[in-house]
Amino acid sequence: MPAPTHFILIDDEMCSNKISKTFIRTMYPNAEVVESVSPFEALQYIRHHFTVHIVATVVLLDINMPRLNGW
Fold first, then answer.
1. Which of 10, 21, 45, 71 is most enclosed, with most CB atoms within 10 A?
2. β-sheet bridge partners, residue 7
């Protein structure tokens, strides 16, 4: 299985996104990492990005967020 090349981090805590991004960059230095503290912005990004082209992507999603949760 090839290494992941695209990650999306969705968490309302900036610190959690920073920690995750640092870990991902350590393991996969060439990976593209997109981070968002707003679930609405992340959903908009996903809708736009994946209608243009499909890329195998790992999504790290916080389940407990205000206004729009991960469920």
1. 10
2. 33, 58
Answer for the pair 61, 13: CB distance below 8 angstroms, yes or no.
no
Name beta bridge partners: 15: none
Contact predicate 63/70, CB 8 Å: yes
**Could you tell me the pTM of the whole model?**
0.87
Encoded amino acid at 16, one letter: S
pLDDT digits (tens, 9 = 90+) for 1-48: 677 789 999 999 999 999 999 999 999 999 999 999 999 999 999 999
Phi, psi (deg, nearest 5) at residue 44: -65, -45
